[in-house]
């Protein structure tokens, strides 16, 4: 049988290049058909690359290489049988092994103690050494369930920080002048490119307002327990802001539109993208038809998307689309910011931290939970009056949430 060449497959219509983030099998190791051999990092997601034949794996590309679609990644030398060496010999079982001992059919090889990609990410986030985890998968491989079990058993106190693209501060001697160079991940490079493009290719402007969240606070406090009991998720701020934006978008189609050459594309639906911070960068998966979904549906979908985003399991389809974006810098303590448009969309709403501030109400100074709102928009398609009216509409819906629930 001839050598099988493993080439970068077509991943998505807009993806022309990927980065080989890590090998999952060693050079010269035996691989089974459809067994993942490496991981690719694309502009939008991390993908496993399965073997197209069984045999001996030979590296062609190296970790960190940028590869175009169709580029050669590795070669597989077909082999009739899996080679057996001393490390893979079966462990001779005692005559009468206790019930809890490992069966004699379990073999020790490269897979033994090696986590699957999903398990590896869970262990890394929980700062768990894979060698301390008992693998129950084939040949002792650590499965996702093994990793989740190990993570759940970790002490709750003093959690370790999750690794990110940002270098961890290092304590050095006084007047030290050391430097650390690290290659940008493909996702970080893509984010940088898109942000620069948005600044250079749009007539971006930002308008501000502030919203009194007193009624929203009362609503959540009064009905939170019943909402959780019925739906299994909490009523958060994001679903309320999303529904308010969706209602305003349906009434003001310019804010929900986008420019395509000399044309303007209007949408009769509100697919709202939500900015989610992950260890590898910011992603903005959309929830589709927010205008037609219930608050519970939005909360459930957002929770699922956030979980997938932080574990690197978002699919390309889940990352595609969106007609408007909401970003919440308030979770990090931001008081005010000017968010950048998520092209090809024409507007993005920035939420910020809630602060108890004195405000004038009916001639009296009272303390209220206030939040600054920022709407960045493309002035080529959205007029200043339209942007201000949109933001005021969102503010009014949030300050009187009954009109939001009654669709008034």
Question: Could you give a short account of the major beta sheet?
Answer: 7 strands, mixed
**Average of the residue pLDDT scores:** 81
What low-confidence regions span 5 or more consecutive residues with pLDDT below 50? 86-91, 96-106, 156-165
**Share of β-strand residues:** 15-25%
Number of domains: 3
Superfamily at the CATH H level of the largest domain? Chloramphenicol acetyltransferase-like domain
Main CATH class of the largest domain? Alpha Beta
Shape: elongated
Features:
408 residues, alpha+beta, OB fold (Dihydrolipoamide Acetyltransferase, E2P), Dihydrolipoamide Transferase, Chloramphenicol Acetyltransferase, 3 domains, 7-stranded mixed beta sheet, 4-stranded antiparallel beta sheet, 19 strands, 26% helix, 24% strand
Could you characterize what this model shows?
This protein has nine helices and 19 strands. With 408 residues, it is of the alpha+beta class. It has three domains: 83 residues, OB fold (Dihydrolipoamide Acetyltransferase, E2P) (Beta Barrel); 61 residues, Dihydrolipoamide Transferase; 206 residues, Chloramphenicol Acetyltransferase (2-Layer Sandwich). The strands form five sheets. Strands 9, 12, 15, 16, 17, 18 and 19 form a seven-stranded mixed beta sheet that branches. It has a four-stranded antiparallel beta sheet with strand order 1-8-6-3, with no helix packed on it. Strands 5-4-2-7 form a four-stranded antiparallel beta sheet, with no helix packed on it. About 7% of the residues have low confidence.
């Amino acid at each position: 049988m001839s050598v099988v060449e493993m080439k970068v497959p077509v991943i998505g219509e807009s993806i022309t290049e990927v980065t080989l983030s890590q090998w999952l099998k060693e050079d010269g190791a035996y691989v089974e058909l459809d067994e993942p051999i490496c991981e690719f990092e694309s502009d939008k997601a991390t993908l496993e690359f399965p073997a197209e034949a069984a045999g001996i794996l030979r590296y062609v590309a190296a970790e960190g290489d940028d590869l175009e679609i169709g580029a050669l990644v590795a070669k597989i030398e077909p082999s009739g049988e899996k080679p057996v060496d001393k490390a893979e010999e079966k462990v001779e079982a005692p005559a009468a092994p206790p019930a809890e001992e490992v069966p004699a059919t379990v073999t020790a090889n490269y897979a033994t103690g090696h986590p699957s990609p999903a398990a590896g990410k869970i262990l890394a986030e929980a700062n768990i050494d894979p060698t301390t985890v008992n693998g129950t998968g084939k040949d002792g491989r650590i499965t996702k369930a093994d990793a989740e079990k190990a993570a759940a058993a970790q002490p709750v106190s003093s959690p370790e920080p999750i690794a990110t693209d940002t270098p961890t501060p290092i304590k050095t001697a006084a007047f030290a002048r050391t430097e650390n160079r690290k290659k940008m991940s493909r996702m970080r490079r893509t984010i940088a490119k898109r942000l620069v493009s948005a600044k250079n290719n749009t007539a971006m402007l930002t308008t501000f307002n502030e919203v009194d969240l007193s009624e929203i606070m009362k609503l959540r406090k009064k009905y939170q327990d019943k909402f959780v009991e019925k739906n299994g998720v909490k009523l958060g701020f994001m679903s309320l802001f999303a529904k308010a934006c969706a209602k305003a978008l349906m009434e003001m189609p310019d804010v929900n539109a986008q420019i395509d050459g000399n044309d303007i594309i209007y949408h009769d639906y509100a697919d709202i993208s939500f900015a989610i911070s992950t260890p590898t960068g910011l992603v903005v998966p959309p929830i589709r038809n927010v205008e037609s979904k219930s608050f519970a549906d939005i909360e459930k979908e957002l929770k699922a998307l956030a979980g997938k985003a932080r574990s690197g399991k978002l699919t390309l389809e889940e990352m595609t689309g969106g007609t408007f974006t909401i970003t919440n810098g308030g979770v990090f303590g931001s008081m005010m910011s000017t968010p950048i448009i998520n092209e090809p969309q024409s507007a993005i709403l920035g939420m910020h931290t809630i602060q108890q501030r004195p405000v004038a109400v009916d001639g009296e100074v009272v303390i209220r939970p206030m939040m600054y709102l920022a709407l960045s928009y493309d002035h080529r398609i959205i007029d200043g009056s339209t942007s201000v009216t949109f933001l005021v509409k969102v503010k009014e819906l949030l300050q009187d949430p009954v009109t939001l629930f009654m669709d008034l």
